[in-house]
Queue: 2 jobs
Job 1
Amino acid sequence: MFKKQAKRLALWGGGTLAAVWAGLANAGIFWIFDPKGTMADTNLHYMIIDVVIMGAIVGITALLVIWFMWKYSKGKNRGKYDAHWSHSNTLEVLVWGIPIIAVGFLAYFAVKGTFEINPYNPTVITKHMAPKGDPVHVDVIATDWQWLFIYPQYHMAVANELVLPVHTPVFFRLTSTAVTSGFFIPQLVGMIDVMPGMRTKNALESDRIGVYQGIASDYAGAGTSWMTFPTKMVSKEDFQNWVSKVQTSPKTMTYASFNRFAEPYINVNHRVVYFSNVESGIFDHLMMEVMHGKTWPLPPAMTENMVAYMQKQAAEHRD
Amino acid sequence: MLVQVPGGWNPLLGRLAIDQIPYTNPILAPLFVAVVIGGIILLGLITYYQKWGYLWKEWLTTVDHKKLGVMYIILGLVMLFRGFIDGLMIRTQQVWANGPQSSGVFGAVHGYLTPFHFGQVYSAHGLIMILLAATPLLVGFMNIIVPLQVGARDMAYPYLNALGLWITAAAVALIMISLFVGDFAHNGWFGYAPIFELQYSPGVGVDYWIWTLELTALGTTLGGINLIATIVKMRAPGMTWFRLPIFTWASLSANIIALTSFPALQVALFLVACDRYFGSHFFTAGFGGNLMLYTNLFWLWGHPEVYFVILPAFGMMSEIFPAFSEKPLFGYITMVAASFAIAGVSWLVWLHHFFTMGAGPEVNSFFSVATMLVGIPTGVKVFNWAFTMYRGRITYTAAMLWAIGALFLLLVGGLTGMMLAIPAINYMVHNSVFVIAHFHSMLLVIVYAIFGSVLFWFPKVFGFKLDEFWAKTMFWLFSAGTVLVFVPMYMLGFMGQTRRLDYVFNTAWHPYLVTEEIGIAVYCLSVAAFFVLLYVSIRDRVKNRVGQDAWGTSRSLEWLTHSPVPFYNFAVTPHVNARDELAWRRHNGINEAQPTQYVDIHMPNNTGVAIYIGALTFVLGFALTWRVWWLCLLSLVAIIVLMIVRSWRGDPGYIITAAELEKMEREAMQRQQQVEGHLPHHGGHAVPSGAMAYEGQKVSPLGTPPSSGDHH
């Protein structure tokens, strides 16, 4: 009786949860399954190949185990018992052969995919680029704990918001001031590490207008959780209008003012700042300085008992 | 030469100061009071029942591999609980601090943990679960079972064995004291360069992390040396390599990994310590430092370590499946080959922990394919367990349920592992909670195998079985918790949730976070069921007593001696005739054959040196953390002096005479008679010619206890 009730409860509970989940899934919250750009499309393509092949093997194995569990259960007399059977050449060939073939098959796709979305030269983008595709270049700098996106072609920069035109290849150069973090826009492009004194690259292209979440995907200290940034894919005209708007921002940026910007700051209120007339070469200047030993030390107040610091920052925001 | 540290320092106390004790912290202060009260009660009880002498003589100074193993396992279970509480705190923070409208208490903007405190909790969770829970639990089992399975009286180096335990215990003490004195690291369990450098972590947390890791690495390396020596040199006569029980094979492959990989960790951490103490620039961003070098060095150890913990778990499963299928393991030789294939490939895959570092596609391709190769021997193992059940006679004991649970988790972990091995997929889910769910699937394989082994081998060590009903209740609750926590976590990974978020910005994830929290609550119930299991089993211990072969279907050598195992393991070293020796003897009707004569045996003495050195390594770690230089020097000198003195004196050991042995064996057999209701007797089957039950003794029928030979 109790068992039956428990079973019913489990069924109902499971069903309800599944329904809730399914409902939310329709809202497109499974970002990895809902890519909006060439790079993310390719990621999903390989995920499907892998899951189909491995899923088949794992699924069949699971069914086999369940069948054996049922058939050879003691006292049920469903299957023949053989106290000594422990070897079969045919089965040995199968148990080694199936994984070897599967791995060989997947290895081909793994290598192919690695080259296709190689962050330094993603052939899915570069191969189909028009000769005069006019790509947009963005220099990404992660600070403790904000993002600065410098558009060197337009001599402007934006903090904590990324705006890009559709149908245009975008090439990123990335570095960091103080510590390591990760640059990640789940629906557009996979993760790439952002490291101080080092330069990584990435790229993306999208033909779908929309706002996509950007995330700092690697732990960089206390403010990491708030290092999120909206990524707006807009039409080419809207992009030009937006560029003109940013270029009229009263705030400007030199390497000296960049240094002040890069002071530790937890972006709890998601402030977005536009900079015009940005001095060129900030990215390379920063790289060089970090390699020569520049750091942005954190005061103990920001690494031990965060309470006092968080209160101070909250108070500053009220002004 | 030494770097200046922010904050105060004085020659007497180093960085220690009263403000380093978090007495104002609303979570830690009450916990501290509870720990102190609990500690006083415990010490009071030991004093009241006058158990200090017993504790010292029988446990703290012992060199008996079984008692050391039991202490390893208790240590591991305590830390498993501590790690679980950390996990509970992580899940609670994430479900609470979800969305900009979520409330905050105790000074946190959202939730109840400030970012830095949250960082410490998950760093401690990871470090504890892998190095101070899983590792001691597995080392404990290897300690107990391996000497029994090879037919030895003890480990090759009993004193070294005790030393390994007490150094591991020192590491545990160090991480526990970081709760109440200073901070722990916030840089994740594996550490990020350069966030662990002094500029970005000025407190003592990272120093605690360094020395805890160094001590546990040292302890585990010592254990590895011992286990390898035991397996290679201490096998009973007739125990050829291909008669070795499969768990022992797994232990051998695992400890070869440990012995070769832990030094890489020790060197990497030593370099981190150089950066923090001497101001060198191994892993800084500037001055020629290379921060990704640290990541490479760490995972050069870190990935082999993953297989160091999973291989013994596979070995445990390979023992449980045949015992409850009443059949030999399918494909023994390929199982051994698969273990060593995994161990070998483990050296070639470390870079898959950071495909996103930005290495070229050639490098990533190499490590991708190498990683997928691991899937081949692992797949073979899964198939072999399945075919062990095939044509078997399966009894669904609780131990078997845990082993089957482990098998299914391995399928899930394998599927997701093959996804992560492909960089094109990895870029999307690396550092997401999908990875967390994947490696928890794999680590839960280990936890399942361990709980299965606790049930399977408990009667061997303590002489009575654990209660099946509560063991199964615990299994089902634990499995329900696993599903409720990790299915939503996999889904959240596909939704793009990254790991280590102390504030979760997306409210659309809320239902899934809530489901995970419910799963944690179910885990709490399974922990409660575990305590009930222990209580009920100990209460009914007389009723549940067992003889030598606790399950009636056991197969390997450890089931040939009494339960509980006497301190000398085997009165007379058994002679091994076949791969599954006990199954072979049972088949031939000589499974209860007793030795015809006893001879004197030589045993090692207890020693207090191991626990003294363990305590001193704790003092050394603590002094290094707080930069109390005089204490560092003092404890280091004391350790070296103790080691020299001990080496000088050596251990002559002592002799158990044949007469004493006979008396103890007679008593043990009487106890067994009470349990099984008859005296050991010869089954009367035809015994193959050339068979030998004990060293130098032909098989002979026995109804009466043997004479003790010429040692009177």
Note: Residues 701-712 of chain B have pLDDT under 50 and may be disordered.
Job 2
Amino acid sequence: MELDIKLIDDNGKRMDGRSAEELRKIKIEAGVLHRADGSCYLEWGGNKVFAAVYGPREAIPRHTQNPLRAIVSARYNMAAFSVEDRKRPGPDRRSREISKVISEALEKVVLTEQFPRSAIDVNIEVLDAEAGTRCAGLTAAGVALADAGIPMKDIPVACAAGKIAGQIVIDLGKEEDNFGDADLPVAISPRTDEILLLQMDGHLTVEEFNKALDLAIKGCHKASEIQKKAIMDKYQSVKGAE
Amino acid sequence: MSNEERKIVLPSQILGDIKSDKAGRGTFIENGKIISEKLGILNANSNYINVISFKGRYEPTVDDFIIGIVEEALSAGWLVDINAPSPAFLHVNEVPWDIEFGDTEKYLNRGDSIMAKVSQIDELKKFQITLKDRNLYKIKGGHIIEVEPSRVPRIIGKKGSMITLIKKYIRCRIFVGQNGRIWVDGDTESIERVLQTIYKIESEAIIYGLTNRIEELLKKDAKDVR
């Protein structure tokens, strides 16, 4: 590991020129895929992510059905060309873990009891990765679910915070993630601030953790505004197309 | 429908208070507030707040006329895809034919289309449909298209005005299922024109004065007006 890498320069700026509380650039477009019931394309810094939602439809195989509510099954997948070395295609330990935590986060906001015995499938495809793909994927999935007209309590949103060069910062970039001290992805329901997903990699003290969590939630609210604007833009244009 | 600005709402948007309003379709109540549960258009009707969604699966209601496609023939009935979150069941007693046990495949098989009526929905949202009503039968010939179920009221129009309009200008037979499936029969040219008209209605469903604009469009290349 290169130890001489400087994550924060003398002016307090990070490697890509951001301040500690600044997010990368987020661009969201809703309803981009025609075959899916709902879809979203999201660019978060260097991350490029597609999310597609299908359903609610009959859960297959039948033994996975829940007689009282729908199951939400998210599938997170990274394209072979999304990273510098070729990623071996197919599900692996990491993507299965991310699929599981995203499914559980989404299940908490979708009103699943309206669709007994059904499944809502969420496909998250990472085309280009640059740290924070699970947050980008979950944020895209939130927009795609809303676009699909699925009833839910809130539009879920995620953002990460972390510790680099002894300082707590928001939304880690690629080098910061690789050479930093800790990474804390958080997903929330922005209306109530309930936490839907919380993971941590690395070490933080309790004070640092609390600071990072507050910062990540702040980032989630910023991302949530962009999400809502993206959905509104899409449907305002449908409405105004005279 | 009122002529005020149609407002688009997002899931999680607060729409009102339970003290002054009542929560209608597409909303839920939390901490005394009425909150939208899906993306759609706000519709306030005699202090009920409703959200009519743009997209989404068909939500069956008893007595809806629908078009179903048979998925599977079982020994005591059929599983029928009605574009809802789960397939509906058509029992042998609910068809007009006299069927011996296990002979279901002779009458309806996978891929056949039927016009049916939703007869029962239980608390677990198991849907039962029936063919025992007037004008319900197995579909032979014609063309089935799918549109968003939320657009069906616009395609039918106020008291069937839009459908009457299409039938007036184009010689064809149309059956609009509440589940967003539409059956059209006639000669090839008529079917083509009906489909174009329906797709236009679907894409412009939320713009005012739709019926008039569709009438102009139909008048332009009308051949035999009835």
Note: Chain A touches chain B through 36 residues (CB under 8 Å).
